[in-house]
Write a structure and sequence with these properties.
Layout (H helix, E strand, L loop, with lengths): L1 H17 L2 E10 L6 E3 L2 E3 L1 H16 L2 E10 L2 H9 L5 E8 L2 H4 L2 E3 L4 E10 L10 H8 L3 E4 L4 H12 L6 E3 L3 H10 L3 E6 H10 L5 E3 L5 E11 L4 H10 L8 H19 L3
Length: 272
């Protein structure tokens, strides 16, 4: 009888200890307002709020309470490398376009946003009316391209170089804001930025003279979070976000997008 009581007591202790698991969750984010960015001592943005909702979901639905550690990056390459070699309990938030090439080294969650990438020139540059070699050489033949290395924005420019602009040279910058700064100062530079980055930049810099080259815009992108290969959080996040009662169907998802983007941009970027 005494032995039975001891076993029962140990069982109750074991149940109490493991009924709620607690682990660390590491959030690496690329500084890019309004997606993920630091402001004073606060970390804000669309991606930060989505991952915060995921953390709440883990606690409520999976009985997992996690201790969260955030780490910001201003350099895109460093951000990507950090996630590739990180602990498996790591998410990367970086407005990352889901591509087959990146899937070779990282796991992607389901898409959390749609995206359009705009081709931007200085406002004094000529317009590209037709996407062919003669037209692109006429407009961009003497220009250099401003871009973030190893990004989807860089990939679009590499496609232009391969098909139309074999002599194209690159000026590398760490983020979309720097790309747009460079283009606004120099009529002989152009590049790609995300639609939201362009929208935010114009709001904050109303005097800058920039324009879209609509013929060259890219509208097939879907953005997701990344995790190191083999992370169990990829499937868990997909259940949270895309399951039968998933977050992407909730009013909270739409309201957080509208808070940061307004109703028009939300309509174009929300995943349903």
């Amino acid at each position: 009888m005494k032995k039975l009581c001891i076993l029962s007591f140990l069982f109750l202790i074991n149940t109490a200890l493991f009924s709620k698991t607690k682990d660390s969750l590491f959030i690496h984010y690329f500084e890019n307002n309004p997606f993920s960015y630091s402001e004073g001592t606060s970390i804000k943005g669309i991606e930060i709020e989505i991952i915060t909702e995921y953390i709440k979901w883990l606690k409520t639905n999976k009985n997992q309470e996690v201790y969260v550690q955030y780490k910001g990056f201003f350099d895109f390459d460093s951000f990507l490398s950090s996630v590739k070699t990180a602990n498996k309990n790591t998410f990367g938030l970086g407005t990352l376009t889901i591509t087959q090439e990146r899937k070779k080294e990282l796991d992607f969650t389901d898409p959390v946003l749609k995206n359009v990438a705009f081709c931007i020139t200085n406002g004094h540059a000529p317009d590209v009316n037709i996407k062919n070699k003669e037209e692109l050489l006429k407009v961009f033949g003497k220009m250099s391209a401003v871009t973030i290395p190893n990004s989807s924005l860089h990939a679009y420019l590499m496609d232009l170089k391969k098909s139309y602009l074999p002599e194209l040279k690159f000026n590398f910058q760490p983020n979309p804001q720097k790309i747009l700064d460079e283009i606004s100062k120099n009529v002989l530079q152009f590049g790609y930025v995300d639609a939201v980055s362009f929208w935010i930049y114009l709001k904050n810099n109303p005097g800058r003279y920039l324009k879209m080259q609509k013929t060259l815009n890219q509208s097939k992108e879907e953005l997701g979070f990344i995790t190191p290969k083999g992370s169990e959080h990829t499937a868990l996040f997909n259940e949270f976000f895309s399951g039968a009662q998933g977050f992407k169907y909730s009013k909270t998802y739409r309201s957080l997008l509208e808070k940061h983007l307004g109703s028009y941009m939300t309509q174009n970027m929300a995943i349903y």
